[in-house]
Amino acid sequence: MARPPAARERRAGARTRGAPRPLLVLLLLACCTPLRPRAASTEIQQPDYSIYLRRQDLLQRVADLAAANPRTMRAESRQASDAGYSIDMLIVTAETAGLSKDSGGHTDKVRLLLDFGEHGREYITSELALRLLRVLANGTALEAAAGGARRAARLRHILDACVFKIIPMENTRGRELVERGQLCERKNGRGVDTNRNWDVDWGKKEKDYDPSEEYPGRAPHSEPEVKIILSEAQSLQPHVWVNVHSGMYALFTPFDHKATVPDGPDAAAAVRMMERINGLSCKGKCAVGSGGKSVGYLAHGTATDYMYTKLRVPLSFTWEIYGDMAASFDDCFRMFNPVTKQAFEETLNDWLSAFLHLLELLPTHPATAPLLRNALAAADAAEAAAAKGEAAPAAAAPAAASLAAGAAGGGGSSGQQQQQRHSRNAEAHLDAPAGGAQQQWARFRPHESSGGGGRSSSGAGPVLLVMAVVALATAGLLLGRRWGEGRRGDGAGGARPWTPGLPRAQG
Ligand SMILES: [Zn+2]
Questions:
Q1: What is the DSSP letter of 503?
Q2: Is 320 a residue of the active site?
Q3: Angle at 297 between CA 256 and CA 214, to 5 degrees
Q4: What is the pLDDT of residues 366-388, one digit of tens each?
Q5: pTM of the model
Q6: Where are the domains of the chain?
Q7: What is the whole-number distance in angstroms between the Cα of residue 491 and the centre of ligand 1?
Q8: Distance, CA of 364 to CA of 280 (rounded, Å)
Q9: What is the CA(504)–ligand 1 centre distance, in A?
Q10: What's the pLDDT tens digit per position in 464-490?
Q11: How far is the CA of 72 from the centre of ligand 1 (A)?
């Protein structure tokens, strides 16, 4: 976030230092009736627990889901403590093809480590974790999310070649504080921003450093939350790390601590994947690229930079999945979370879709493509068999086996050709199911689907888009003055594309 607390403090100060109190009282007395609607609109939004789950309920749902699917899921509670501060962290291992007996079973799989709920006030991210877990647990949920059986079948082949480690709520202690009423709290239970506690460029402070938002802790990796995730990452050695936040719309790649993008074809492929997801799932409104470069200010000691630079995780991302730019500074729940049921469902559907697209794009990245070659060959064979009306598994197995043999038998060029073909197929499949997917999404949008049958919302789309653009522009103008201080001149000659008023990157 773009220093919301500091900005909030400035604004609160301005408010109390504003018009003399008697004058204010007179004004209120004179026109209290017309003021009423305005007063209502500036109320601080409280979490609506008919939409959101409370911390304990959400974690219980996750645990129950894993317990109900023991063949493919395992939920484990990890503990760590430091100087009397202790935490519990729930971590779910999911393998749709069946849990491996030990970590040796992960060698030939694409390994994904996904972190949600790192900041207490960002409720929506943990809700997304729960949705994603349901999709991994349940074929019907996958089919609904995929928008049809055909795409789901293909996804199932990809999923079967993956192992997921999912942290549905990293910061349970900070979340506890938010549920008790500290709606603007993002740090952990003892005041440390764990997304500044990692040992890459740790402790460096920008000119406008604000400890109430970004205190990095007394030492790198001092925080129990970070210790647990570090240990998980070291043992899993993931190919994919996604750190899910809210506060804006973005698909960030490294680096956060400097305004550059990593060199090389792998990094370029990762950026291309995010660009595709921006178009497919973020309606093109996500900032894409290096966190430090895209937003125009730097963050030091972030998890994503550590995963990329120290643990060499080739696909390291920070996703920002929601932000209300028009929310007032002290209205944090509204700023970081959708507040209507409809917006809640739409956000979850969009980002569930983003995760499915991420999976489908893995064959386009050099680090993960080889691990998916057999899965995609099996998917191709199953589709071909289905088209001919044959039984899919019988046709799929030999195709996969012969491909594997070809790859192992030094057929370098044929292997490469296969990889290129699968990469192209992956892109093609992304374009195919859009219509079907939208129909299926409607299942999760009660307000839309109950609107008199059919797609009544489709006609409203352009109007809503215009309204959104106007709202964003207005918010930018209004908030720019408040949040802009200390940011201008941050970059070289004002060349950075950061827009005053955009919330802070990297959570
Ligand atoms: Zn965050």
A1: P
A2: yes
A3: 75
A4: 999 999 999 999 999 999 999 99
A5: 0.75
A6: 55-380
A7: 23
A8: 16
A9: 8
A10: 444 544 444 444 333 333 332 222 222
A11: 29
